[in-house]
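step=predict obj=Radical SAM domain-containing protein n=340
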Amino acid sequence: VTNAQFPEALRTLPPVTQLYVSVDAANPKDLKTLDQPLFADYWERFLSCLDLLKEKRQRTVYRLTLVGGYNMDDPSASVSKECHTGAKPRGSSAAASAVGENSINEVERMCCRSATSGNKDDYAETACGCLSPRTEGGQEKSPGEETPQSRAAIREEITGEKADKVRGKAKPEGQSLTDRSAAAYARLVLRGSPDLIEVKAVTYAGTSKHSKLTMKNIPWHDEVVAFCQTLCDALPTGEYAIACEHRHSCCVLIAKTSYRRDGVWHTWIDYDKFHQLATSGNTTFTGFDYCAPTPSWAVYGSAEAGFSPLEKRVFSKGKQKRLLRDKARTEQGENANGAD
């Protein structure tokens, strides 16, 4: 992992499995504010590192961290909307109609916010539909769920803007902070041509005199997904697409579409193959030479949303924990009655 401030070290770096570059901002002013660089020529160093990244033949990755109100739309500015299951915040009036791009994902965000925070006491008893597995391939989806295809149609319906995707040409900047930020990051992507782009929501670590961030600045997973789609739309058509997600971490992986072979993403690493190539003396091998198929549960849009089948999700508090506990007790009672 590099912070893109030492181009000479990057130039002489031998082949590595995966070279990460932290792209903390898309312009000099924000980079200085966020990273507080040591060098006066920090921006020139940053761009030089991105140029060198394009020359690397092995896997390269941009790492982006999203902060609401800084490099994407402020999550707290969204218009409240009724849950697509019919659940509404207690004591509230009917939800306002969706206005503007911030409302595109509000339905799923309201549901997932209460679930992931464990605080569903402000919501009706009905379980949220967005907690249901999201599936593709003709299988049933959750009510009101968006797909990558439908999201563009919804954006066009709300904003009246059509996606201007021309091969080799970036999409013109929009008016929202998310659109402007995505367009700026797209220019950096075209400059460094990374194999992968890892996008995650900032992790809240408390408020202090050194940080003014609050929970209002923390994007939800669906907002991260929406930003990634906007970024893909701002890039030349067909070059990048959302490949993987891990909902629990609010993390999304964008990949070059060349890593999708015969309809199957190959974003994982064959480490044995890499070590074989790295010790062969041949430094011209590429990331495609040691890629491995992505497990179906890690692919974007899968029912598991990035959760390994070998892992078990634990709800430490709130109604979800109580619902699971009551369900387990009911099943135990039914099994006992069946045994009798």
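step=describe
Residues 7-312 form a domain with the TIM Barrel fold (CATH 3.20.20).
step=end
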